Every structure is written in structure tokens, then in C-alpha cells.
Amino acid sequence: LIGLSGGIDSALTATLACHAIGSENVTCVMMPSAYSSDHSLSDSITLSNNLGCNIHKLPIEPIIDVYNDSISPLFKLRGSGTTEENIQARVRGTLLMAIANKENALLLTTGNKSELAVGYCTLYGDMCGGLSVIGDLYKTTVYSLSKYINQKFNRHLIPPSIITKAPSAELRPNQEDQDTLPPYELLDAILKQYLEHYRSGDEIIRDGYKKETVDWVISQVNSQEYKRQQTPPVLKVSQAAFGQGRRMPIAGTISLFST
Fold first, then answer.
1. Model-level pTM greater than 0.85?
2. What CA–CA distances, in Å, run from 181 to 97, 168, 220, 221?
3. Around Cβ 173, how many Cβ atoms within 10 Å?
4. Which of 34, 54, 105, 113 could form a disulfide with 1 if both were Cys (CB 3.0 to 4.6 A apart)?
């Protein structure tokens, strides 16, 4: 079972699942909100048709409205922000877990290593599931692997529009990942040095990276360990996969490789 967003991470996860166990054994669920774009829905349908897997649509906006109406008296004059975005993710996680329970299915999470590293994910939301398929793949590797799959099959199995669109969680209007994160090419380069080569912030900065960017990335990695220890098992493809490949305490990590 996979929550299909129209983005590249869930598209790659669904493609790998269909290749591994057969498309007849894979079910995808679209859960559009008020911020889901039309092209994300159409891309999801195109992908599922290409893969030959089952797909269902469960709009979540009515559920979101109930949540917001119920909790809004406690949030007077505070405006909307990350809290409301996380509610969307958690509604989706709840629905997917319910379907997985009912159908005795394994829910696959779709988060990549870049997101897990810096905590760009929601506990009890998009982190719900039983197995993290691409949790040891950086975002740039997700793109490379998706392109390779299309070349391997000599067809656009993963629609080109999924690969070329700007990555977005689509939890608020006109949202893009780079509103919050450094460009993935930059983020992944720093993460590889820090996570896989065990280099300190000072060493990475001496390579020419901006201090404020390196400091932010390392701070995020160290402060988000509590999230990663609550993620499903990650399929290990590197020497520094989160979980068994990188055993770190939740507390006391900040001083280890900080600048």
C-alpha cells in the first residue's frame, strides 16, 4: 500500500514495489487536499496506469475542515503554519494505516534520505508505515534512479512531468521544498560529507561551502534524531543508512561533528 502524491518519491516507491512483487499486489491511494494540484492527480493516474496497479482517490479536505474547526479555539490569533500542514499529513497517515489494517497490507513510506536527515517529514503522518523503501536514497539519487528506470524500460514508465516538476509537499499554496531547504544538490553534497565521510562542519566549510548553510544542515541532522528513531526500517544500500547503519543516541549528538 502506498500513498501516491504525484511527486517523485512516491512514484519511485510505487515503481519499485510493482517491480518487486507484481503490480497486481500493489495498491496506491491519492488523498488530495485543497492544495493538491491538478497535475499531481493526473500524474498519479498516469503512473498507476503505466504500472498496472490499483489506485483509489480519497479526498481529505472534509476531514481537514473537521480537525481545524475542532482545534481552532485553542489557536486563536496564531494564524496558520506548520501545525496545519502537519494535520494534513497526519490525516493521510491515519487513512493509509486504516486501509493497511483492513486489507492486511504493508504500508510503504515514501520519504527519502535527504528529508529524513533534516526532519522534513511529519511524525505520525508521512512517516507512518512498515517499511521505508527509499530512506537510504538521497533526493538527487531518487531523480537519477527514476531516470535510469525509464531508460532501462525504454519508455516513460515514470511520467516525465513527475521528474521535471519542482518538488513540493503541497501543504500550502505555491509551496516548494526549496522554500525551506537548500537546493537538493547542495543539501545532498553536505549530507554525504557529514553522514558518510564523518567530516566535521569546519572541514566541510573549508571545502568552500557557506558556513550558515553547513551549520543549518548539521543542526537539523543532530536535532532530528528523535524522528528518525521512530521511522520504519530503512532498506540499506549505503554504509551509513539511518537505523542499523548509523546508530546514534537521541541526546548528546550535537557536539560530535558540529562546527
1. yes
2. 28, 11, 11, 13
3. 7
4. 105
